[in-house]
Amino acid sequence: MYIRNIIKEKLREAMASVLPITVIVALLCFALIPMDSGLMLSFLVGAGLLVLGMGFFTLGAEMSMSRIGNLIGAGITKTRRLWLIVVLSLALGAAVTVAEPDLQVLATYVPGIDKGALVAAVSLGVGAFLALCMLRILFYALVFGLACFTEPGLLSIAFDSGGVTTGPMTVPFIMALGVGVASIRSDENAREDSFGLVALCSIGPILAVMVLSFIYSAGEGESAITVSGSVATTVDIGRDYLASIPHQLLEVAQALLPIAAIFLLFQLFSLKLQRRSLLSILIGFAYTYLGLVLFMTGVNAGFSPLGYALGEHLSRGALKYLLPPIAMLMGWYIISAEPAVHILNKQVEELSAGAISQRAMGLCLSVAISLAYGIAMLRVIWGIPIMYFLIPGYLLALGLSFMVPRSFTAIAFDSGGVASGPLTATFMLPFAMGACRALGGEVMTDAFGLVALVALMPLISVQAMGGLYTLRTRRRAVPAVPEFGDNEIIELWEVC
Length: 496
Hints:
Elements: H1 2-31, H2 37-77, H3 82-98, H4 101-109, H5 115-133, H6 140-147, H7 152-164, H8 170-184, H9 190-193, H10 197-201, H11 203-212, H12 234-271, H13 275-313, H14 323-336, H15 339-351, H16 358-382, H17 387-400, H18 406-419, H19 422-438, H20 443-447, H21 450-476, H22 486-495
Helix pairs in contact: 1-2, 1-14, 2-8, 2-12, 2-13, 3-5, 3-8, 3-12, 4-5, 4-19, 5-11, 6-11, 7-11, 7-21, 8-22, 12-13, 13-19, 14-16, 15-16, 15-18, 16-19, 16-21, 17-21, 18-21
């Protein structure tokens, strides 16, 4: 009965995330943009699979991935050997990132780069920077320095890759390892330094894809998104979905195999969990596997193709000027429905002792993500280079970091991964790609970069809220920002 109630709760959360964009798309297709009925039905089936997939995946991640991250993080730090922590961090970061669903989706869309090579490079980037983060080295200057020599066609993809790697698979591991390493130190800054690792690890994928740009050339090949015109009956739709399932079963198994193997090795030689705890984690693995298979099948067979087609149709004639407001409307409801965002808002309210309410924080994030989607569509229409927004955006975010409490800065830089949820990669990115292709633009430079903008905006908005809090503390003598303990840090970021 208990597990049944949890499953229902996770499915309700997933439905709350998927339903708003499904309703908006349905209204557009029925009232403004005529779409093929078979494609629309396939989209609705895909939306249903996304709800099931996200629900089972988040349940499985909580039952298995979060617990494994905490157990391994605590286990490796007991050795007090920094070299061992660095080596294991590299292996764990790479293994867990391979299974990130958003990364699998992004790698499918990128033409000209072998999917396996892109996933491997990004995963190694996360692993390497998780290891380097343990040594507390800052790399933002290196990112923008290397960007000067990166092929423009892969620059947007590089920054997008940083936004899709911080999800429910990686965050629990990274935060658990950070808290464990910080616990070795006894100085007063140890707890605060356990924040920010997620943000630093997102730099690794950016640099990894920039390095790939010296090997692969942009524009060689076509994106894997296709819009089939032969879907005329329910039998055709069923055939398409059934044909997709075996491929997804194999790919997801390959993605989860590394982290499963690492966990089993730790279980044999270090953890030695009792049978009941081990069985619970293995059941969580099964839920994670089932959720990822359903999620990826729904994305590839029905959800993303309609997003691509809708973007194409909205780019015809004067309708193209509706792209920014429609994208902003979608962004408002997408971020409002994200369960992790609600938890982030609650934590900020508690952190500020009530000075910043959940409603105010939610409004701030909704405005930020809506602006990010709107800017992304303006880039599609006019072909504005992504660096025109990223450079001033990060400069502003870094400037704000000197004017707000450190806790807000750390949360802001880690919260970009929370905002760039699964719907951004699965629907909004194909939407931008379809619009860009229809307008005759360069997909590699103009459409990609959307995820990067979504990951950037919370850095500014959360710190702006921190600045507001600082002003209120000066005017109304609100109690100072409380310090987080290790358990509170884990609880905050495991859910996000």
